[in-house]
Amino acid sequence: MSPPPLPVDTSILPNLKQDLAAKPRELFIGGKFVPAKSGETLEVIDPATGKVFAHAASGGAEDIDLAVQAARKCFDTGAWPAMPPAQRARIMMKLAELIEANGSRIALTETLDNGMPLMMGYFGAVMAASEALRYNAGWATKINGETFTPSHPGEFHAFTQREPVGVVGGIVPWNFPFVMSVAKMAQALAAGCTIVLKPAEQTPLSAAVLGELVAEAGFPEGAVNVVTGFGKTAGAALVEHPLVDKISFTGSTDTGKQIVKACTGNLKRVTLELGGKSPVIIFDDADLSKAIPSAAMGIFGNAGQVCAAGSRLFVHEKVRDQVLEGVTAMAKSLKVGSGLDPETRMGPLVSDTQFARVTGYIESALSEGAKVHTGGDKADVEGAEGGYFVQPTVLTDTVAGMKAVEEEIFGPVLATMTFGDDDLETIAAAANNTQYGLNASVFTQDITRGLKMARRIKSGMVNINGAGGGPDPAMPLGGFKQSGWGRENGRAGVEAFTEIKSVTVNLG
Ligand code: NAI
Ligand code: MG
């Protein structure tokens, strides 16, 4: 099956590569591009080749301070928060248009930087980001309070108003760098906040394009700032900065916990979107023509580097063989290769570190008694010998307690377990036997059973019979347990960037 034509102009690639090689990407602070104060840059590696192809400024504490000061000034002078909401919405809409107009450059940059298939670079970065902006622009004019009737004697007019929380630090991971930067920013801006974004050191490039388009869209200086750099330096400085009011973090549970501790200084508000080990539960009455591709792409999509990936498959023993056969057939048919190859369906892992981590989990599973049903090894890609490619992998004989069943692998590795005609409590208990609680999928034709499972599963998201596309900006996204604090997206996502003020007027 040949893929649908992509609206990406790949003829710009040679010039883009040349430009990336020639000029290190700079920080975007107070509406201007600047190098890091230290003059340092970080190397950007193409995960499909393992070679350095660009550099980006490596920001440190001094640069973070300048960016925070710029965001603070934009907030405190009212340049952004006091702008009429409809005008803020228009600027955000304008940015959405500019992102689409620059879609080819953004998609190609994202694919070079992260390794994702170009199709995902377009739909999952460009289009998802512009939709996140449009959705959240709508909220700028719809953030309201409530009115109340206090029970004190007398007559009162009592109400709440929602005010922007202030300056936000947005810390972004490498798995979907562009859309995560834009989505965090869009929610913060809709609420009237200003933001300093700190992209991941592995994938700093698309955020520089964002800075350029932010300047063009007409945001006031300092509303959006981008400081690329390492977590331990730039990230830590942002989290500790006393003039930052809130941290919105997406990344690993371990780093999330460190961030919580570091935010105690001025008691910053914190929302965390962390890891997962999400179950996929397939009952024997499921429509397998839907369940099989969904289970396969739920773990092989973006090479499994997805917080909501379905990494633990629970399948009824009656359909186990059929499901494993189907998922294996898909695993074998997925073309693994450079994201720039239009035939590619699964790109490389983002880095050598991630490659070592994922292959290490496979080895540990085998040493604990698991078996490889398909995959299980690095993937050889002709013409891309230095790339971080892993085969789509299905493990069987995996049981609770194994490292590969307990921990987030963040790679294309599926652990499979079976169940029989157990009651729903038993199946839910197995699915819930994890420190995480981000996402879950249930496949059954019996909608009552599906809904009963949804009630029993402890996770922030549950999909019954397939999730459709990626996350929807209108649907809250976040986790129970150690998958995080708070929610992104939807009303809850925007409100997480506000403070509630209760105002009581004594009417005498
Ligand atoms: P990480 O959580 O350490 O990095 C994510 C972001 O946090 C990056 O921008 C990084 O620079 C920043 N960061 C790191 N340490 C920081 C600190 N002390 N203070 C402030 N910011 C800091 O994730 P990492 O190490 O790249 O990946 C390790 C594992 O984390 C992955 O294998 C995966 O399991 C998980 N992960 C989960 C993600 C998700 O979407 N839930 C995204 C990325 C990683
Ligand atoms: Mg880390």
Secondary structure topology:
Layout: H1 13-22, E1 27-29, E2 32-34, E3 41-46, E4 51-57, H2 61-76, H3 85-101, H4 103-114, H5 118-140, E5 147-148, E6 156-164, E7 167-171, H6 177-191, E8 194-198, H7 205-217, E9 224-226, H8 231-240, E10 246-250, H9 253-262, E11 269-273, E12 278-282, H10 288-300, E13 310-316, H11 320-333, H12 352-367, E14 371-374, E15 393-396, H13 403-406, E16 413-419, H14 424-431, E17 441-443, H15 447-456, E18 463-464, E19 484-485, H16 490-495, E20 498-506
Parallel strand pairs: 7-8, 7-10, 8-9, 10-11, 12-13, 12-17, 13-16, 15-16, 17-18
Antiparallel strand pairs: 1-2, 3-4, 5-6, 6-20, 11-19, 14-15
This protein binds 1,4-dihydronicotinamide adenine dinucleotide and magnesium ion (MG).
